[in-house]
Amino acid sequence: MFKAIPRAPLLLGLAGLLPFFWGLATYLNQPLGEWALLTLGGRFTAPFVQLSYGTVILSFMSGVLWGFATKDTDWTGYALSTIPALWAFFMVGGGPASAALNLCIGFIGLLLLDLHFWQRRATPPWWMSLRLLLTGLVVLSLLPLAFG
Questions:
Q1: DSSP letters along 29-96, please?
Q2: Residue 66 domain-assigned?
Q3: Is residue 1 part of a domain?
Q4: Each residue's pLDDT tens digit, 80-101
Q5: Based on the structure, what is the number of domains in the chain?
Q6: What is the pTM assigned to this prediction?
Q7: DSSP per-residue codes, 100-139
């Protein structure tokens, strides 16, 4: 299952984690959070940056899965690919803690969908190596907000 990840997807995937970890930093470090709020505004400060970006990424990943579904003639792949975006739309709301917890659940569910498409050989061979790494780091960045 663990294959070497090509450099470009690895570096771009890791760069895509920056908003999650910036949000975590502004959540855990009060002076940084206050500076970010005054300088950058609430949109780029925890919890908003993590929750809005997480919603965008779940929706983006629905599109990625839709692309994988095109490699199969079975309609279920298309249906499954819509789940992350629908999850984000319906479940990421309310207070910050419940929204962060629902994002964690959404990303773990996405990982299961990734596994489904990987097992059907619709993804690159290294896909699960990348997705396990990125999903683990995303969930770790959201847990303090979910349970803080």
A1: -HHHHHHHHHHT-GGGSTTHHHHHHHHHHHHHHHHHHHHHHTTSS-HHHHHHHTHHHHHHHHHS-SSH
A2: yes
A3: no
A4: 999 999 999 999 999 999 999 9
A5: 1
A6: 0.95
A7: HHHHHHHHHHHHHHHHHHHHTT-S-TTHHHHHHHHHHHHH
